[in-house]
Amino acid sequence: MAVLGMALSGVLGGAFAFGVLRLMLRRDSRIDLRQGLVADGLGARSAGADFSTPRAEFDRQLAIIQGQRRRVEADQLRDRARHADLLRREEEARRKEDEARRRMEEAEARRAEEERLRREADEEAARIAAREAEEARLAEEREAARQAELLAIEEQRQAEVEAAREQAEMEARAAAERSAAELRARLDREGASSSDVQISLMWNNFNDLDLHVVCPSGERIHGGNKESACGGVLDVDANVKPDSRRPVENCVWPDGVAPGGVYQVYVHHYKKHAKRRSKDPTKFSIIVNAGGDPREYSGELSAGDPILKVCEFSVDPPEVRAAKRAELEAQLAATTEALATGDFHLDEEEAPEEDVEEEPVLEEAADVVNDDEPMAEDVDELPAAPDLDELTASEPEAAPTPRRSMADRYGPEPTEDEASQMDRKF
Fold first, then answer.
1. Confidence of residue 22 (pLDDT cuts 50, 70, 90)
2. Is the model's pLDDT at 42 over the cut of 80?
3. Quick one: DSSP state of residue 400?
4. Are 258 and 315 in contact (CB under 8 A)?
5. What is the pLDDT of residues 310-361, one digit of tens each?
6. Which residues, 6 or more positions from 181, have their beta carbon under 8 angstroms from its beta carbon?
7. Is 210 exposed, middle or buried, given 0-12, 13-18 or 19+ CB atoms closer than 10 A?
8. Where are the domains of the chain?
9. Among 87-91, 174-178, 325-329, which is the least confidently predicted range?
10. Fewer CB within 10 Å: C terminus or N terminus of the chain?
11. Considering Cα of 53, then 57, then 62, then 64, what sign does the dihedral take?
12. What percent of the chain has pLDDT over 70?
């Protein structure tokens, strides 16, 4: 379009130059060009020569040229508009293409970023899984090592506990044997009786402790009521005076006589003898033979303390105890006969495990001391005890007090109402 406009302008300019040259070369017209040229240009009339025809021709040519120029300009404007529209469309298409390409690039970048993030997440998850697996493996190894260490410690502890238990059992058996030997020695010394139902009280100083036994009938045996209607007898009542540093009190029923039921055992600290410098609290031991079931209980009391319930136990009726005794005697006789004839055998697999029970230990069994009292033949086998005189602060010796009678010690015999109140109290 620009080339066409330039060609058209060249043609019009050439035609205009040709017309001017033709007017100048006409011989029949003498024109004073200087007179016809005014300030308004060629389109203004002058007072000189008449140029109407040339002017009309010039105007016509000029109008043609101007029309052509307007058409050219209009064509140029249309061309420029079309060109601008084309450029705009090309720009819009290019912009859309760029936008589409940008969107595609962004989508591709997003996909690449998402893929990268996914790979990184997978790699991180794999690293975490590997780390967790390693930590789990290390934790299992640590736990296995800890369990092995705990197992070794537990085995060592069990071995120590077993050794301590065996040692404790040996000590308990030795203490029980010492306690039983001491009890036998003291009972033998006092000429006391023994039977299948028997309660004995032992302590190791010169204080006066009293044994109280409540029978199944509710009757109470003590120093003021030594014999009960059910056959029980308090045959030893010690240290009314401070006679012995190894006293014993004993309540016993003849074999097969004690009634069945519940027995209650109490201990009362009746008096603290200052003469022999005995200290409080006084530790004691109660040894019970409940129908062939020996038991031992310990405790301590001081002067002024209320009466203390130590234990209670049940005894089968006499006929039941007799039946059990007959059965045991029959088994013992059968075993003795089998051993004598050589028919007795016990397979190792069938041998019952020995059930060792810890026997209570008399806490003060080791506190037995030698004094001037006569003892049984096995006194030398009893455990020695520290001298209480050395452990006690020096106190002035008091004048010996005469032995009190039962009425002086326990008061007059209680009436039935008083006895029932005392029974309810105890």
1. confident
2. no
3. P
4. yes
5. 999 999 998 988 888 888 888 888 888 777 776 655 544 444 444 444 443 3
6. 378, 381, 382
7. buried
8. 2-103, 196-334
9. 174-178
10. N
11. positive
12. 73
Indicate if the pLDDT at residue 254 is higher than 70.
yes
59's enclosing H/E stretch is helix 52-190
Contact 394, 279 (CB under 8 A): no
Name the one residue in this structure whose structure tokens are 């309660």: 199
Say whether the peptide bond before residue 374 is cis (omega within 30 degrees of 0): no
- Model pLDDT, residue 426: 40
Phi-psi region of 95 (alpha: psi -120 to 50; beta: other; left: phi over 0): alpha
Query: Looking at residue 26, what is its pLDDT?
Result: 64
> Interior CA angle at 58 toward 37 and 48, to 5°?
35
Exposed (0-12), middle (13-18) or buried (19+): which is 252, by Cβ within 10 Å? buried
DSSP line for 304-319 = TPPPEEEEEEEE--HH
From CA 336, how far away is CA 174, in angstroms rounded?
28
* Amino acid occupying residue 318: P
* Residue recorded with tokens 């006499």: 318
183-196 pLDDT, tens digit per residue, is 888 888 888 888 88
Q: Which residues pair with 220 in a beta bridge?
A: 214
CB 206 within 8 A of CB 276: yes
Q: How far is 180 from 114, CA to CA, in rounded Å?
A: 91
Of 257, 247, 202, residue with least CA distance to 227: 257
Helix axes 2-25, 52-190, angle to 10 degrees: 160
**Whole-prediction pTM value?**
0.46
Could you tell me the CA-to-CA distances from 175 to 169, 201, 219 in Å, in that order?
Answer: 9, 16, 34
* Residue 198, Cβ density class (10 Å: 0-12 exposed, 13-18 middle, ≥19 buried): buried
